[in-house]
Amino acid sequence: GKDLVKTLLENYGYTVIDLGVGVKPEDFIKAAAAKKTAAVGMSALLVQTSAHMNTVARLMKKAGLRIPILAGGAPVNLKLAAAVAADGAPEGEKIKKDVFYCPSAMDAVNVLNSLSSENREEVIENNARKLLEALPAEKLPQREKPRRKISLENYSPPKTLFAPKRFDVAQ
Question: What is the pTM of this model?
Answer without folding.
Answer: 0.77
